[in-house]
TrEMBL record:
This protein's name: Probable beta-glucosidase G
Function: Beta-glucosidases are one of a number of cellulolytic enzymes involved in the degradation of cellulosic biomass. Catalyzes the last step releasing glucose from the inhibitory cellobiose.
Enzyme Commission code(s) on record: 3.2.1.21
Keyword Metal-binding: no
Family the UniProt entry places it in: Belongs to the glycosyl hydrolase 3 family.
Superkingdom: Eukaryota
Source organism of this protein record: Heliocybe sulcata
Pathway: Glycan metabolism; cellulose degradation
Subcellular location: Secreted
């Protein structure tokens, strides 16, 4: 039993544990979990399931296999139509930040940028707007959002497609993105499940001697699976996600798309997932075994009856049922799982036809390879952008984090002489598209609005920083000079007049390329950007640095006295220049916060990308021996100083937090383990019930309007097993405040929020003893703490 409220204690705490050696168990085994659970439609999908059931009863076995097997067609993934039943098929399109394979579509800020906004409403709106464009183009399924990679290694090439290495922040972003997407009647697909934490050797390769070298195996202990990697996927299921994409990697040496423990066990049993599991493109490596392990759809599939493009699914399923190897009931469940979200989201009613222009851009399937007739009779090249540019501009600014601001550098105050430096400032010179050439695109000249690979977008335009600065300067009657060549600007600034010493501000734009298929090999900005900053700052007392990066950068110039301001602008999408000018000039008060930690040096990041030369078939073993200790969890545990901590970010105003009160909303009779309840999507519903309510008041004590981001961190009692992070994010709010204004902010802590995964009990357990609840403006700027004992 706990009292109704607690005395507020002020405590600047940096809790630390002993650097205990984490135990390493045997990772060459993944427990079998069979049979694959049937969908029951629980969680509100019952009537959609009944429709799916009625539909399935009219299908031949061949038609059933078609519904679970991709085929060449106009989209990146295609389920063929069944005209006899008025079913137009399903169109699946990349990716998480845009409908990539489309013309007249918008390119939105990346997931990383959305996470840096810490703004639930904008994250939701981003989902809505992306899905509106999919629907306008006749695409039924968004292949996104991304929670894998989570961001275990700072070097991960796809980290920007997802949100944050913090599972709570990523989970919130998954939930709101999925709710936004599905509110429009479009299916979301949470990917890549799970442990897809590096691109290097993500798929099998063949050695010089012809041996198959298996994919990297992510060997993850049970606690880390629950508390980090699958946490946001549980949130996705809780939000009603339609599908989940299994990943390329192995888990404990078993391929993720045929791993019965994670598919049948974790996802379909423990999380109660009612939708369908689709494979990543080419990640299906068996037929019946994968199906029995829980895989429901093979993508991109194959061409029926073609030995040139075989599929483990398709006709092979028909044969396996006929020869008695596979129960037709399992196939029926696969089909029901695919069709239930389709009916639930009313995609059988007046869904737009596929825009014919999509098929012309399809590099995967030329039309000559199609076997089925897709309805391409609608209007071509539909413009689906609507007014989404406004949201893109707003979110691009909201996801920009102000890291440093000295000497009143920002906001700019009518500068008359402006210098712009760096190859990230100007227009793109090698096309607007970062997909082709093996996902290349690390071009020297041009701003970096997004990253590369299937998660990119095909921009119709990009507002560059230089364009937006020129437009603003013209209005102000200011003079803009620029050198976009990093090599030249690093060696010779003499072409400028007035010289840099007399400029009001020197704006340096830096970029970092990141893409699917490759991991980063450095945490520094690309193209010798550090040297460029040094050169400009040597000659300019007001040097403002902006980075456009698909992940974190170390910033060796951060303490340079002439570097007066630093902004991490991430990947902002097509309105990039407008977003940054809004922040630089103070039309928008920066309110982004770091969704990761910026330490001092590359060497501070102790989780590398595994990169082997001449490996044997089973040599790619990624032992996640750090377990729970990634990003700030690791730096806190090791008590290491960092440059800019997780959750950090400056504003043009100041905020204060007044006190902390904690209320027991569970009625004082909390059990350590959740009461047994029927699983609902997301897991045991008891896990999502609020048990504690934390309240504070936040005030804008400065002179301009701005948004504060108060954050709540939970420190577990000392009774938890070793290796538990000292504190973990479990609540945040984005609070817009006018000068002087105060608002009351509450945080609801759920049972899961104050539990750890007990590997013996196989349950979420609230530990005995006292917790420290810390409220502050970042993970290391704690203003108030309260000691609570939920089980006392
Ligand atoms: C990973 O852990 C296993 C023990 O489970 C060990 O045999 C192997 O050497 C480790 N691999 C690496 C690359 O550390
Ligand atoms: C991998 O092995 C570890 C250690 O035995 C275990 O805790 C974990 O649940 C296993 N994961 C999978 C996906 O089988
Ligand atoms: C799924 O439902 C079928 C009947 O449609 C039944 O035969 C099968 O046993 C069920 N499977 C499970 C795992 O409950
Ligand atoms: C069945 O799967 C095997 C293995 O991929 C393949 O060789 C064969 O062509 C497939 N059959 C059909 C009809 O797709
Ligand atoms: C049944 O069909 C499947 C799929 O083609 C095949 O892999 C399996 O070997 C067949 N089994 C028998 C007993 O014929
Ligand atoms: C598209 O239009 C053509 C010609 O009008 C017609 O033959 C075809 O059946 C239509 N296709 C679909 C899928 O409606
Ligand atoms: C960039 O500047 C360097 C050094 O001044 C010069 O060698 C190089 O040709 C320039 N690049 C372009 C594309 O002009
Ligand atoms: C810039 O600063 C460096 C180092 O102080 C100096 O050598 C160089 O002449 C300066 N360049 C210009 C154009 O002022
Ligand atoms: C891995 O090694 C290859 C070959 O040496 C290199 O090209 C690549 O950059 C490395 N990858 C990373 C992430 O360091
Ligand atoms: C800062 O800029 C001024 C003006 O160009 C220059 O004189 C000074 O040396 C610079 N400071 C540093 C530390 O580079
Ligand atoms: C960063 O690394 C360099 C050497 O690589 C070292 O001199 C410096 O002290 C390190 N900085 C910090 C803050 O650890
Ligand atoms: C943690 O860091 C603080 C401040 O830097 C220091 O006072 C303390 O001794 C450190 N504790 C440990 C265990 O290293």
């Amino acid at each position: 039993m706990i009292p109704a409220s607690y005395r507020a204690v002020s405590l600047a705490l940096l809790a630390c544990g002993t650097a205990a050696q984490l135990e390493q168990s045997s990772y060459a085994y993944s427990p079998p979990v069979y049979p694959s659970p049937n969908t029951t439609g629980l969680g509100g999908w019952e009537s959609a399931l009944a429709k799916a059931d009625a539909f399935v009863s009219q299908l031949t076995l061949d038609e059933k296999t078609q519904i679970v097997t991709g085929t060449p067609g106009p989209c990146v993934g295609n389920i063929p139509p069944i005209p006899r039943l008025g079913f137009n098929g399903l169109c699946l399109q990349d990716g998480p930040l845009a409908i990539r394979q489309a013309d007249f579509a918008s390119v939105f800020p990346a997931g990383l940028t959305a996470a840096a906004s810490w703004d639930r409403d904008l994250i939701y709106q981003r989902g809505v707007s992306i899905a509106e464009e999919y629907k306008g183009k006749g695409a039924h399924v968004v292949l996104g959002p991304v929670a894998g990679p989570l961001g275990r290694s700072a070097y991960g090439g796809r980290n920007w497609e997802g949100f944050s290495p913090d599972p709570y922040l990523t989970g919130v972003a998954m939930e709101h993105t999925i709710q936004g997407i599905q509110s429009v009647g479009v299916q979301a697909c949470a990917k890549h499940y799970i442990g897809n934490e590096q691109e290097t050797q993500r798929v099998p390769s063949v050695s010089a001697s012809g041996e198959t070298i298996e994919s990297a195996s992510s060997n993850i202990d049970d606690r880390a699976i629950h508390e980090l990697y699958s946490w946001p996927f549980a949130d996705a299921v809780h939000a009603g996600v339609s599908s989940v994409m299994c990943s390329y990697n192995r888990l404990n040496e078993s391929y993720a798309c045929q791993n019965s423990y994670t598919l049948n066990g974790l996802l379909k049993t423990e999380f109660g997932f009612q939708g369908y599991v689709m494979s990543d493109w080419g990640a299906t490596l068996s037929g019946v075994p994968a199906i029995e392990a829980g895989l429901d759809m093979n993508m991109p599939g194959g061409i029926p009856f073609s030995s040139a493009t075989p599929s483990y699914f398709g006709q092979n399923i028909t044969i396996a049922v006929q020869n008695g190897t596979l129960a037709e009931e399992r196939v029926d469940d696969m089909v029901r799982r695919v069709l239930t979200p389709y009916f639930y989201l009313n995609q059988d009613q007046d869904f737009p036809t596929i825009d014919p222009s999509s098929s012309g851009m399809n590099t995967l399937f030329p039309q000559s390879a199609w076997v089925y007739q897709f309805d391409l009779n609608g209007t071509s090249s539909r413009d689906v952008r609507a007014n989404h540019a406004a949201l893109i501009r707003e979110l691009g600014a909201a996801g920009t984090v102000l890291l440093k601001n000295t000497n009143g550098a920002l906001p700019l105050k009518n500068p008359k002489y402006i210098g712009v430096f760096g190859n990230d400032a100007g227009d793109l010179t090698n096309s607007l598209y970062f997909f082709l050439d093996g996902f290349g695109g690390q071009y020297e000249y041009g701003t970096q609005p997004v990253g590369g690979g299937s998660g990119t977008g095909r921009s119709t335009y990009v507002v560059t920083p230089l364009d937006a600065i020129k437009a603003r300067a013209k209005k102000d009657g200011a003079l803009v000079q620029y050198i976009l060549n990093n090599t030249m600007a690093s060696t010779d600034l003499s072409y400028l007049y007035p010289p840099t010493q007399e400029l009001d501000v020197c704006l340096v734009f830096l970029k970092t390329w990141a893409t699917e298929n490759y991991d980063r090999s450095s945490l520094h900005v690309d193209w010798d950007g550090d040297a460029l900053v040094e050169a400009v700052a040597a000659n300019c007392t007001n040097t403002v640095v902006v980075t456009h990066s698909g992940g974190l950068n170390v910033l060796p110039f951060a303490s340079h006295p002439n570097v007066t301001a630093i902004l991490a602008a991430h990947y902002p999408g097509q309105e990039s220049g407008n977003s940054i000018v809004d922040v630089l000039y103070g039309d928008v008060n920066p309110s982004g916060r770091l969704p990761y930690t910026i330490a001092h040096n590359d060497s501070d990041y102790t989780i590398p990308i595994l990169n082997l030369t001449n490996p044997g078939p089973n040599d790619w073993q990624l032992n996640f021996t750090e377990s729970l200790l990634i990003d700030y969890r690791q730096f806190d545990y090791a008590n290491k100083s960092v440059l800019y901590e997780f959750g950090y970010g400056l504003s043009y105003t100041n905020f204060s937090l007044a006190g902390i009160t904690v209320q027991d909303v569970a009625g004082g009779n909390l059990s350590a383990l959740p009461p047994a309840q029927v699983v609902a999507p997301g897991g045991n519903p008891a896990l999502f019930e609020s048990v504690l309510k934390v309240t504070t008041q936040v005030q804008n004590t400065g002179s301009v309007a701005g948004a504060a981001v108060p954050q709540l961190y939970v420190g577990m009692p000392s009774t938890v097993p070793s290796g538990t992070p000292p504190k973990q994010l479990r609540g945040f709010n984005k609070v817009p405040l006018t000068p002087g204004e105060t608002k009351t902010v509450t945080f609801a802590l759920t049972r899961r929020d104050i539990s750890y995964w007990d590997v013996e009990a196989q349950q979420w357990r609230i530990p005995e003893g006292t917790f420290t609840l810390s409220l502050g403006f970042s993970s290391r700027d704690i203003k108030h703490s309260a000691i609570v004992c939920p089980l006392c």
